[in-house]
Amino acid sequence: xxxxxxxxxxxxxxxxxxxxxxxxxxxxxxxxxxxxxxxxxxxxxxxxxxxxxxxxxxxxxxxxxxxxxxxxxxxxxxxxxxxxxxxxxxxxxxxxxxxxxxxxxxxxxxxxxxxxxxxxxxxxxxxxxxxxxxxxxxxxxxxxxxxxxxxxxxxxxxxxxxxxxxxxxxxxxxxxxxxxxxxxxxxxxxxxxxxxxxxxxxxxxxxxxxxxxxxxxxxxxxxxxxxxxxxxxxxxxxxxxxxxxxxxxxxxxxxxxxxxxxxxxxxxxxxxxxxxxxxxxxxxxxxxxxxxxxxxxxxxxxxxxxxxxxxxxxxxxxxxxxxxxxx
Length: 327
Hints:
- Helices cover 58% and strands 15% of the residues.
- By secondary structure, it is of the alpha+beta class.
C-alpha cells in the first residue's frame, strides 16, 4: 500500500506577541513587519513555483533558492546578504539500511525556512519543543534554528546504536569460525555506511563553530551556548563513527587471518595424509620391482611380516602426525 504524499507546505506559523498563529503565504509580508516577531515556514520537497513565491516573500537569494530546489548539496553554510543558507544531511533507517536526506535552511533576522528532501522526519517535535517554552521562543529564529539542528543531530544517535549492535553481531560471527562470504560482505557494507555517515556529520562541527562565533545580526548571544552543545553532540557522533570504522577494519583483518589459519590447517591435514600414504606405497613399490635376488621372497612368513611391518610403520607415522596436530 502506497503512503500518501506529504503536502509541500507543512507549516507556516507567525510568532510574536500572543499565541502562535497559522498564516497563509500571502500573509507572510504583513507578519514580517510585526515587531519582535518572526515567521517559521516548513516545506517538504517543494516545487519551483512554491520556492519562487517564498523567494519573493522573504527576498531569498536566487542561487540559494536554486540549490534548495535541486537538492543533492554538500553540507555547508553560506552567507547571502543579511541571511544564512545552511545545508545539512539527515539520516533514517526505515529497515536495516541507512537512507540519507537533506534539509535546507534559510535564516533571516525575522524568519526561518526549513526545506526537507528525502529521508527526514518532520520537525513538528522541534517546533512543539520551542512553543512549549515562551522565554526561549522569544529569542527569535536563531533559537528555532537550534531546535531543528539539535533534532537532526539527535536522530543520528539511534543509527549509531544500531551500527554498534550490527558490529557486535558480525564480530561474533567472525570469531565463531564460520567463514561465510556473507559475513565479509556485511562488514564491507557497514563500513561503507559509516563512511557516508561521517561525511554527513563531520561538516556539522564547522557549521556549529561558525554559529557560535559569527553572524551577530542573525544569531543571538543567548543562543550561542546551545549551538556549542549541538556541536559537541556532532563531534561525539563523529568520534564514535571513527572508532566503529577502526573496529570494522580490525574485524575484517581478523576474518581474513582466521580464513588463512583455517586454510593452513587444511593444507597440513592434506600433507599429513599424503605422508601417511607414502610409507605403504614406498614398500609396495619396493617389492614391485621384481628383483630375482630378494631372499625374503622365499621365506614362508615374508608376506605377513611385511604386512605387519607396513601397518606398524603407518601406525607410528599416524601417532607422530597426531601429536604434531597435522591430523
